[in-house]
Amino acid sequence: MASPSALSLDLSALQRRPVFTSDARVDSHDLVAREFSDHGLKWCSGAVDTALSKVRIRQLQMFMLQYGAEVEIRPRPFDDFVLVHLSLSGVAEMVSDGVPIRLPAGAAALIAPRRDLHMRWQQGARQLILKVPCQLLRAWAPESLQNDTRFVHPIVALSSVQGQQWHFLMQSLLHVSQQTVESAAHVRWVDHMESNVALFLASCAQGMPVPMQPTVPQIELPSSAAAAGDLRRLERLDDYMRSRLSAPVALEDLARAAGVSVRGLNMLCQRHHGESPMALLRNRRLDAVRARLLEQPGHCVTDTALEFGFGHLGRFSSYYRDRFGELPSQTAGA
What we know:
The chain is built from 13 helices and twelve strands. It is of the alpha+beta class. The chain has two domains: about 5-205, Jelly Rolls; about 225-330, Orthogonal Bundle (Arc Repressor Mutant, subunit A), CATH 1.10.10. The strands form two sheets. It has a seven-stranded antiparallel beta sheet with strand order 1-3-4-11-6-9-12, sandwiched between helices. The protein has a five-stranded antiparallel beta sheet with strand order 2-5-10-7-8. Strand 7 (about 90-95) and strand 8 (about 100-105) form a beta hairpin. The two termini are about 40 Å apart.
């Protein structure tokens, strides 16, 4: 049941700050990715009616986002921020690191995926999203967890009481976003308010145990030393992929470039990208095809697909549509 306070929020501050509106699938993907993270976007049923608004307080950023149509979204894991979703209308279903949640209108949740996130927004869903830097949130983590990547659960549903408090905090931030900064004291007051928002989220997150034994099969998080090694391997892998976008590449070639076994490469890519090495390579090539088609409107789609290693044009078109929400011929004719 929708919370009355969710429906009575004064959103005029956001409505006066549109980032974009669009009925084009590709525009919707690109412009939303700039504000959050790269993601796969699959359009399901309904007409595209994307609208994104944004206000910045100081460290915190607040967004109002809708797609109009029913969509499936697969963002990459967040590097340096978490999100808090408040459902304004419709229903959003999410699975973060294997933990599912359903957000009807009025419900809110803290989302902090470390491996993978899959969201399905029903047609007409609209979300109020707060983007919180990890640095701000981590300041309120217990000292024993401040350097731990598991300092917050991958998804935390706010209770009805916490939800009411969250509505109040969001309304306060919206009011503050409209105020002109007139003094250093005002800046300190706003910083204090943002800190209180982070403290509130930390109290919600610490109220439930961080799962040390996941309830679904997941890959163990690496230690800090191992993470540094992973980063070097990923950089070598990425350099190799980008240098061979047009050349035949086998799984063993990728493992050799990264300096790991084939099994180790699969684990590395799943841990950091949530997909297999060959799927990662395919997406790099799809990105290259799209960049070429956008840079050279009218360029031959078939020639471009073949140039970047796609020999089966039917599968290529399907992969392209799944990643960008439209056919390559639509991009080429844009």
